TrEMBL record:
Name assigned to this protein: Phosphohistidine phosphatase SixA
SUPFAM superfamilies: Phosphoglycerate mutase-like
An annotated GO cellular component: cytoplasm
CDD domains membership: HP_PGM_like (cd07067)
Molecular function per GO: protein histidine phosphatase activity
Extent of the signal sequence: none
Biological classification of the source: Bacteria, Pseudomonadati, Pseudomonadota, Gammaproteobacteria, Oceanospirillales
Length: 154
């Protein structure tokens, strides 16, 4: 059962690209991802032990930085439901039904905000900055509550 979920938006992407799918992470985006991962390491008692990531290049690159920084043992998995135009109800139900306890997902706006709102009824986050992470903790009934938000300092 999902106990803790960290929802992360990818770091700042490059402004010039051939296709949205192949849009790379910028140097600033790489620094943002590393900074937020460092914040998690310094403040969290327990860290995620699983990671699901959108198939887009900028999310994959963000995930590589965070995954390595957090020293997650298991390789991260690409999840097609984590694209920006996904259905937040379908995605949320999928995550709640999965076998993860401490999970971080890396995706895009607007799905990250919509997922946060779906999983945490009191969530008032309607947009994520690049590389922002929101931590949601779930009670024994599966009701989520936003516990903390991490913003890049870069």
């Amino acid at each position: 059962m999902l106990k803790t979920l960290w929802i992360m938006r990818h770091g700042l992407a490059e402004s010039e690209f051939d296709t949205d799918f192949n849009r790379a992470l910028s140097a600033v985006g790489k620094s943002q991802a590393a900074d937020v991962a460092e914040q998690l390491i310094k403040t969290e008692v327990e860290l995620p032990d699983n990671m699901l990531v959108s198939p887009f290049r900028r999310t994959q690159e963000t995930a590589q930085i965070v995954h390595q920084s957090l020293a997650i043992d298991k390789p991260f998995e690409t999840e097609d439901l984590l694209v920006h135009f996904a259905d937040p109800h379908l995605l949320g139900d999928f995550l709640l039904a999965a076998k993860f306890e401490k999970l971080i997902v890396v995706s895009h706006m607007p799905i990250v905000a919509r997922l946060c709102q779906y999983l945490s009824p009191d969530c008032e986050i309607y947009g994520f900055q690049t590389a922002q992470v929101v931590k949601i903790e779930f009670d024994k009934n599966g009701v989520g509550k936003v516990n903390h938000s991490y913003l890049p300092r870069v």
